[in-house]
Protein: DUF4371 domain-containing protein
Organism: Macrosiphum euphorbiae
Amino acid sequence: MESSELCVVESASVTMNTKNNRGHIILTYEKDIGNYLNVENIDDCLKHELLRNPWVPNTTYDFKSDLKSLITRAFRHQWLHENGSWLTYSALEGVKGAFCRICVLFKPSIHRGVQGGFIIKPFTKYKDFHASSKIHLSSNWHTESMSRAKDFMDIMNGKTISVIEQVNSGLHKEIETNRLKLKPIISTILFCGTHDLPLRGKKSDSGVFHDLLNFRIESGYEILKDHFLTNVGNAKYSSHRTQNELITLCGKILKEEIVCEANAANAFSIIADESADISGVEQLTIVIRF
Ligand SMILES: [Zn+2]
């Protein structure tokens, strides 16, 4: 979710076209709330713009010409000033009338009753405007929409992080913790390798490798202590299989680094020699000099 800083609006004027961060021009016509009745998946930047700066008719707008034949009382422009935080007028052909833009953009779920004026259709009974707007503002529908709009604005204004980011941040934290657990295990293998020490003893859970890990725990490495105390046997990453896997990975990285350095040198030479080990398997030794 992008923050509001990314939703740069080129002009603050409600009657001018504006531009969102993706370079899309938001036309004045697009900012008429009547375009978004029962519309799902409205672009976040556009929604943000519609909440803050919807299209507003100018003071000379002829509301009487929008009246249906049986209605005599017209919408009054001053109501927009008095109820600017939620009330919006749509001049769109076919939907002319008053809306609650909060409820249009964050359509409340229907628990009981029928959503009517202000939410899914224009409110046009202007002689009852004050009483009806009071009823709407105290309705569960409006309260639900307001709560969702507040969460949306908090995310857009960078005050809170979205659910996706929360999940990502939880995952990121878990990855970091796992790396901290693996770090002493890998460095112990490297220590044994660089000092020609055998990793294992008579049993798989004895020997220099395990003793060095215990030594680390005694020295106060709490994350490793916690790791060995809380994880089950096959998730401790200290078995002989994991040791072999880590040794293979260390060898692979080491080999790649040597090849990389040799390739970067002006010239290099190779000496190869073959010899059978104690089990009779031929082992090829390669010495590279650069
Ligand atoms: Zn509402």
The first helix runs from residue 44 to 52. Confidence is low (pLDDT under 50) at residues 1-15. Strands lie at 18-19, 25-26, 87-90, 97-100, 269-276, 282-289. The radius of gyration is 35 Å.
